[in-house]
């Protein structure tokens, strides 16, 4: 799930942790014929093996999202199964977001204006608003009509009105700013693409656990019991 780089070519004394990959000059790129990759631990060493067993990589893997090396299988599992927005330097409030609740534990929900399951989830979340703070990030996962409503949401005159309209399904009549800056909306689209969010609801718990879809037992899932 997280973006990683495996390398054995960087000099050991440099260390991947000291490299700003956003400023690295790339001389040449060749796409490898690899459809999948597995991390394999053997004799205390982690190897990365292609799905067909042809290619094996050794060396240090670096997580570009969190700017840290991936040295253990536990870190590999965490990178594949969890998303830590703050460690990415991505605050939910900086996206196309409204917030519900006052609790100390924060949960982020990527939602679509026309998603019925998302609306049902939002109704269920109201019961936990004293314990949690829920960030609803509005994206257009369901097509052009959703895109129009999600962009309209980003131009709302009032966050309170935007939350009410989102929960009630009345974004089409939401009052909006006459001169709207869509940069936050564009940032949200890029972030959702980066995280491969292709379905909603997409829920991120306060410990980074991810639910692709509405959790079967919301309370247990929020508590980390499954």
UniProtKB/TrEMBL annotation:
Compartments, record wording: Periplasm
Entries under CDD domains matching the protein: DsbA_DsbC_DsbG
Principal localisation: periplasm
Xref: InterPro entries: DiS-bond_Isoase_DsbC/G, DiS-bond_isomerase_DsbC/G_N, DiS-bond_isomerase_DsbC/G_N_sf, Thiol:disulfide_interchange, Thioredoxin-like_fold, Thioredoxin-like_sf
Domain named Disulphide bond isomerase DsbC/G N-terminal: residues: 21-65
Keywords attached to this entry: Disulfide bond, Periplasm, Redox-active center, Signal
GO cellular component, one term: periplasmic space
Family matches, as Pfam families: DsbC_N (PF10411), Thioredoxin_2 (PF13098)
Thioredoxin-like fold domain boundaries: 101-209
Record-linked SUPFAM superfamilies: DsbC/DsbG N-terminal domain-like, Thioredoxin-like
Family: Belongs to the thioredoxin family. DsbC subfamily.
Function according to Swiss-Prot or TrEMBL: Required for disulfide bond formation in some periplasmic proteins. Acts by transferring its disulfide bond to other proteins and is reduced in the process.
Annotated protein name in UniProt: Thiol:disulfide interchange protein
Lineage: Bacteria, Pseudomonadati, Pseudomonadota, Gammaproteobacteria, Oceanospirillales
């Amino acid at each position: 799930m997280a973006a990683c780089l495996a390398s054995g070519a960087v000099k050991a004394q440099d260390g991947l942790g000291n490299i700003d990959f956003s400023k690295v000059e790339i001389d040449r790129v060749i796409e490898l014929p690899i459809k999948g990759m597995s991390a394999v631990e053997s004799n205390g060493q982690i190897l990365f093996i292609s799905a067909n067993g042809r290619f094996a990589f050794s060396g240090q893997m670096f997580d570009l999202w969190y700017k840290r090396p991936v040295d253990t299988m536990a870190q590999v599992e965490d990178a594949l199964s969890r998303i830590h927005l703050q460690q990415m330097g991505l605050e939910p409030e900086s996206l196309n977001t409204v917030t519900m609740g006052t609790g100390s534990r924060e949960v982020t929900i990527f939602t679509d204006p026309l998603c019925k399951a998302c609306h049902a989830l939002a109704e269920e979340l109201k019961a936990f608003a004293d314990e949690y703070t829920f960030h609803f990030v509005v994206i257009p996962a369901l097509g052009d009509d959703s895109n129009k409503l999600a962009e309209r949401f980003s131009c709302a005159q009032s966050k309170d009105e935007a939350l009410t309209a989102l929960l009630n399904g009345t974004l089409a009549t939401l009052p909006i700013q006459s001169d709207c800056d869509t940069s936050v909306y564009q940032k949200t689209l890029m972030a959702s693409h980066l995280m491969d969010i292709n379905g909603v609801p997409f829920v991120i718990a306060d410990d980074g656990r991810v639910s692709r879809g509405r959790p079967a037992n919301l309370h247990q899932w929020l508590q980390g019991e499954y």
